[in-house]
Write a structure and sequence with these properties.
This protein has a domain of 169 residues: 4-Layer Sandwich (Purple Acid Phosphatase, chain A, domain 2). It is 30% helix and 25% strand. The protein is built from 8 helices and 12 strands. The strands form 2 sheets. A 6-stranded mixed sheet has the order 3-2-1-11-12-9. The chain has a 6-stranded mixed sheet with strand order 4-5-6-10-7-8, covered by helices on one side. Helix 1 links the parallel strand 1 and strand 2.
Length: 246
């Protein structure tokens, strides 16, 4: 079985649609690690598409803020402005849907978190120490996280840590003992210098054991997403950064 793992869509419908087209029939399921909304101008459509196509969807910190479970004041100025706008335009059924999501879940031998096992909502796994802590906190051989907007693969075998940022096309073998932390990167707000939408393919055997992961990137219509942000009156910086992957 192949599972497409996506995260951090952030209301970027153009990127989400391109990724879904790229996934096509290559995968039998799609898992989303949260942050369907925030930053981007198409929150209702993005959440609706994820609800329709993803068998697993987590809540991210932006999702929880958009439905009033987290104070918008805890975010940066631009992110806070986008979240307050998102609150105003969210359809009631989408708000109800997002509010019912949880930031963590377990699927067979895999732990899924928006942040990390340490803090499923807020923790950023951005360095080896954080990755080690996350893997030691989980009893699962594979831990999936989002939130940082950067593709990452870290393995812990016999107390030895290896890996880090993952390049597009990188293949990670998941058998042979140890534990692995994987971050698919961001569909709608990449921040690793590559503006293409990021995601990964997770391969499972017939018993649901993780076999390998492959990191993917998909080109999308960045200009369309930028125009939608500016048309909505959102901060210009949120549109400009899409072209930079920053």
């Amino acid at each position: 079985m192949r599972v497409a793992v996506i995260s951090d869509v952030h209301g970027n419908l153009a990127a989400l649609e391109a990724v879904l087209e790229s996934i096509g029939t290559r995968c039998e399921a799609i898992w989303c690690l949260g942050d369907l909304v925030g930053y981007g101008a198409r929150p209702n459509e993005s959440a609706s598409v994820c609800r329709e196509h993803c068998s697993v969807v987590l809540a991210g910190n932006h999702d929880l803020a958009a439905v009033g479970q987290i104070d918008c004041g805890t975010f940066s100025t631009d992110a806070g402005r986008a979240l307050r706008w998102t609150r105003e335009v969210l359809q009631p059924e989408i708000s109800e849907y997002l509010g019912a999501l949880a930031p963590q879940r377990e699927e067979a031998l895999i732990g899924l978190y928006h942040g990390s096992p340490l803090d499923p909502v807020w923790d950023y796994v951005v360095n080896p120490t954080a990755a080690r802590t996350s893997l030691e906190r989980s009893d699962r051989p594979v831990v999936l996280v989002g939130h940082t907007h950067a593709q990452t693969a870290v393995r812990l075998v016999d107390a030895r840590l290896s890996g880090g940022r993952a390049n597009p096309g990188a293949l990670v073998e998941l058998r042979g003992g140890g534990a692995t932390l994987l971050n698919p990167g961001s569909v709608g707000q990449p921040r690793d210098g590559d503006p293409r939408a990021a995601w990964l393919i997770l391969e499972l055997d017939d018993e649901g054991r993780p076999v390998r992961a492959t990191f993917e990137r998909t080109r999308y219509d960045v200009v369309r997403a930028q125009r939608e942000i500016t048309a909505a009156g959102l901060p210009l910086k949120l549109a400009e950064r899409l072209a930079l992957g920053a």
